[in-house]
Write a structure and sequence with these properties.
By secondary structure, chain A is mainly α. In chain A, 73% of the residues lie in helices and 0% in strands. Chain A has a single domain, classed as Cytochrome c oxidase-like, subunit I domain (Cytochrome C Oxidase, Chain A), CATH 1.20.210. Classes of the chains: A mainly alpha, B mainly alpha. Chain B: It comes from Arenibacter certesii.
Chain lengths: 601, 340
């Protein structure tokens, strides 16, 4: 006991030293053994391990298929044997079989003359509602959920436009990535790197991810409140406003009109205002729906979703108000804005979606409700404070930088709480990995949630910042999070809910192509930029001429372009899958009905 | 009362107030305070032309690849004499117009070099124009985009006197009878880049870099050895940093803009006086080439000696090496000369 306490005291004392190696003795000699770098390598190995596990599970399925084929072969041999049999012998077997088939129970074999009654409702009252399910459903069959037609329509339109912006935004991203390899690809002002880069980031942020989240959110809000959406019309208005904002913003950016170059707030304020209005409308719509819920408790998903909307509104207002943005005030707000855009909007909203769609896809409750609540409040506390870690060693106040670094370390709490919760929910359902691609998508997303966020915290430490800041490592990190976490989880939600809404599931081979192309592409993208970024940082520290760091990056930029191409192709496959799921209007037959009828009759 | 699980009003209100409070602590108050800075003595406002150049800098998204912040760590010493301080940004960071806010200049990526001090490091307009038209004319390995739309090709006969002509090297040259001139935008952008110079801190104030371990050790060694030889300084590397953008890595220069050093009679002269004076004072004696800036303020005697020796012994050049002492003497001589 005493030992334990002293250990804890020691750790508490050491922790600040671990995360705040303030000034002295930074060298490149043993960079490989610095805690931040070791941490990152370990984290990447985790991702790699998960990929291998998924691959093995898939291989296992193929082995099973092979075994089944062997059995079929045996059956064939049996048939051949039958053919070789004499006629009288076959007749005799057939006679016996006919007799067996025509046999009927009289109904009173057990000695009773009464008809069957189900007094306790054990058979008739079987329910598939989330409350108190009597037994688990089979997973891989698409179950049509009874969804009001207007809700279904609005969700599909949100998701449809989101898919468009994903394909558009990543096409631009892919093009921009290729310019690192071939800088002379074109000489049009509106296609130049500086103008297209924000087109890419903003299109995938405000177009793809935001629309997809809100669309998926509409379903969660209605479903978990057990009621109808407050106002469908305003849902359509905000859909139009967001699309308009992204469209106008894209055109303005290509025309060279941007809001001063601060990352993720390149849209000028009239454009961002449209987006903000849409967010406020959506918030009100969700809020009123939750307020009129038919159950007492507010499901934890709705906590996250409502908070994401309200936090983002505040964020947009602070980010665009001009009163405190001259001088370096702009930089303080920039750090705050760009980090909270990711943390309070995308991450918070997406967490809300996981809390519904992950248990729903596995048809079981979330592992721990309280962990979800803990993660919620710590998310707010820690995430809000860490924006300035984008400006470590900058002329911003040292105390602000230190606060950001300390709270970055604090991010471990919500991240570990969330990851534990999701993994424990998955526990016991691992066989789903071989049955469908929904769980692999979720699993990759959740693992990246842990890896990406933890790696981000490590990157905020002063030594790792020393090596990695300003290098391509940052780009790798943002793709690890916005793509590895947000996009993979959104895809998992798409594949969870769309078959249930439309009754159509795309061929597994296409979903598989989507998954593997996106995953391998992301891995190539991120590894090349991480390796190249590290070497670049070391080259700078060693005081080599700047141009050498450009030259050494060249092969890594080629690999990045290759990874990016794989990712883009996977989006085309995904767009096809989406089309496949929404195109066919024919509802599937309700598989449950015949079962119950059979039991009843 | 605080039943977040059942009361949606309390839940939303708590999330809202919590976030707003934290945002004020970590963003709004610090941002408000950061606006309250004084300019440094000697710091000048941007001229109209330079401000237009800054707007172009933002318009073309230069901030995506170029930072403008010298961090207080040793490796950033390449980009400026001292770490950046809030006052450095006082004139460039005000709202651009009603539609666009103050520009975000610090940047988050250094795909290209930091530009805090580019006006001192590279003051030549000719170099900047060539580099903007096509960066690969002067820096072969560069991946920066070209900006041909800032330039205009005209009939050679119609070139007016006040037009700024860009002399393109072989392989990039315009077809015969036509000449490339810089549009106003190109000149504004270059004017802005030339204006980017770190202002010296007033006397007595020092902003220090956090040193790297290696640096501390080498400096320690130097002290131990007494008068150190200049061998610690890598002339080839310094040449790459300070000279190669114009004279090129292979010493061949850029035809029509920057003279070759390989085979140059000045470099190969046994008497190094003219060569060292050119490095110290700059050079503008030959009309077919762009003028060269003085390096006296930027390079120490030892560094100049190292660079000169690299030039005198590379690319087939073969001249005797010079010493730091010779450079020091010439510097004294040059400084005592009455300025003309």
């Amino acid at each position: 006991m005493n030992n334990k306490r002293s250990l804890i005291t020691l750790l508490t004392l050491l922790l600040p030293m671990l995360i705040l190696p303030q000034n002295t003795n930074i060298s490149t000699d043993n960079w490989i053994t610095s805690p931040g770098i070791i941490g990152t390598v370990v984290l990447i190995l985790i991702v790699f391990l998960v990929a291998i596990i998924i691959l093995l599970a898939k291989l296992n399925t193929y082995a099973d298929t092979y075994k089944r084929k062997q059995l079929n072969k045996k059956g064939l041999e049996f048939t051949e044997e039958m053919i070789g049999m004499r006629e009288e012998e076959i007749d005799r077997i057939l006679e016996g079989r006919k007799k067996a088939l025509n046999f009927k129970l009289s109904g009173d074999e057990l000695g009773s003359q009464e008809t069957v009654k189900d007094r306790k409702g054990l058979v008739n009252m079987v329910t598939h509602e989330p409350e108190n399910p009597m037994f688990d459903e089979k997973k891989n069959t698409p179950i049509a959920l009874e969804t009001p037609e207007p809700l279904k329509k609005i969700v599909l339109y949100y998701l449809g436009t989101a898919v468009f912006w994903l394909v558009f935004g990543t096409l631009v991203g892919q093009y921009v990535g290729m310019k690192f390899v071939w800088p002379e690809m074109d000489s049009q002002p509106w296609l130049s790197f500086g103008r297209l880069r924000p087109v890419h980031t903003n299109a995938v942020f405000w177009g793809w991810a935001s629309l997809a989240m809100i669309g998926l959110g509409y379903f969660v809000i209605a479903r978990t409140s057990n009621t109808v959406i407050h106002n469908y019309k305003s849902a359509w208005y905000s859909l139009i406003l967001i699309n308009l904002a992204v469209l106008l913003g894209t055109l303005f950016l290509m025309g060279g009109i941007n809001n001063g170059g601060g990352e993720y707030r390149e849209y000028i304020w009239p454009v961002m205002l449209l987006f903000a209005i849409a967010i406020i409308i959506t918030f009100w719509n969700f809020y009123k729906t939750v307020a009129s819920r038919k159950i007492k408790d507010i499901y934890v998903s709705n906590w996250y979703i409502l908070a994401a909307l309200i936090w983002t509104t505040v964020l947009a207002i602070i980010g665009y108000l001009p009163n405190f943005q001259d001088g370096l005030g702009e930089t303080v707000i920039q750090g705050y804005y760009m980090h909270q855009g990711v943390g309070m909007w995308f991450m918070t909203f997406t967490l809300g979606l996981i809390y519904y769609y992950l248990p729903s896809s596995l048809n079981k409750p979330i592992y721990s409700y309280s962990l979800g609540v803990l993660a919620f409040w710590t998310q707010m506390l820690f995430y809000t404070m860490i924006g300035t870690h984008h400006f470590v060693f900058s002329p911003l106040p040292w105390w602000l930088q230190t606060t950001a670094i300390v709270f970055s370390a604090g991010m471990f709490i919500p991240v570990v709480a969330g990851t534990t919760n999701f993994l424990m929910t998955m526990k016991g359902s691992w066989n789903h990995i071989s049955k469908s691609y929904v769980l692999p998508f979720f699993l990759v997303g959740v693992i990246f949630y842990f890896v990406g966020s933890t790696q981000g915290s490590l990157q905020a430490f002063r030594f790792t910042n020393y090596v990695w800041h300003f290098t391509d490592f940052n780009v790798a990190h943002s793709h690890m999070t916005m793509y590895g976490i947000i996009t993979f989880i959104l895809w998992a939600c798409f594949y969870t809910i769309l078959p249930k809404l439309t009754g159509k599931e795309p061929p597994q081979v296409f979903v598989g192509a989507h998954f593997w192309l996106a995953f391998i592409g992301l891995f190539a993208y991120m590894m090349s930029l991480m390796a190249g970024g590290t070497l670049k940082g070391l080259s700078w520290i060693d005081g080599n001429a700047f141009l050498e760091s450009v030259i050494l990056m060249k092969p890594y930029w080629v690999w990045r372009a290759i990874g990016g191409s794989l990712m883009f192709v996977s989006h085309l496959v995904f767009a096809y899958n989406f089309y496949y799921m929404v195109n066919n209007k024919k509802p599937i037959e309700n598989l449950d009905a015949p079962v119950l009828e059979r039991v009843n009759n | 009362m605080f039943d977040f699980h059942k009361n949606h009003k309390i839940l939303v209100l708590a999330a809202f107030l919590g976030f707003v409070t934290l945002s004020f602590i970590v963003a709004v108050f610090p941002a408000y305070q950061m606006q309250d800075v004084e300019p440094l003595p000697g710091q000048v406002q941007l001229t109209e032309n330079e401000r237009k150049g800054l707007n172009l800098y933002i318009k073309e998204g230069c901030v995506a690849c170029h930072t403008q912040q010298v961090r207080n760590i040793e490796m950033d010493n390449t980009w400026g004499d001292r770490p950046s301080i809030p006052s450095d940004y006082i004139f460039s960071k005000e709202r651009m117009d009603i539609w666009r806010q103050s520009p975000s200049l610090l940047g988050s990526e250094r795909t290209g070099p930091d530009l805090t001090d580019i006006g001192r490091r590279q003051p030549s307009e000719a170099w900047h124009l060539l580099h903007l038209y096509n960066p690969r004319t002067v820096v072969g390995a560069s991946i920066m985009p070209s900006y041909p739309w800032l330039f205009k090709e005209v009939e050679s006969g119609s070139v007016k006197e006040n037009n700024v002509v860009v002399n393109l090297p072989e392989g990039y040259a315009t077809s015969s009878g036509r000449t490339l001139i810089a549009k106003e935008e190109a000149l504004q952008l270059v004017a802005y880049l030339q204006s980017l110079k770190q202002v010296k801190l007033p006397d007595g104030q020092v902003e220090e870099f956090i040193p790297a371990l290696k640096q501390i050790q080498t400096e320690g060694n130097k002290v131990n050895q007494g008068s150190a030889s200049a061998s610690g300084i890598n002339g080839a590397q310094l040449y790459k940093q300070a000279c190669a953008v114009c004279h090129q890595d292979n010493g061949k220069g850029v035809a029509g803009a920057f003279p070759p050093l390989a085979g140059s009679p000045i470099v190969n002269d046994v008497d190094p006086e003219l060569m060292i004076r050119i490095i110290l004072q700059g050079y503008d004696a030959r009309s077919e080439y762009a003028s060269m800036q003085p390096f006296a303020d930027q390079l120490s005697d030892a560094e100049i000696a190292a660079i000169a020796n690299h030039e005198r012994t590379s690319w087939g050049n073969n001249a005797p090496e010079i010493t730091e002492e010779e450079v020091r003497k010439l510097r004294e001589f040059v400084e005592n000369q009455p300025s003309n």
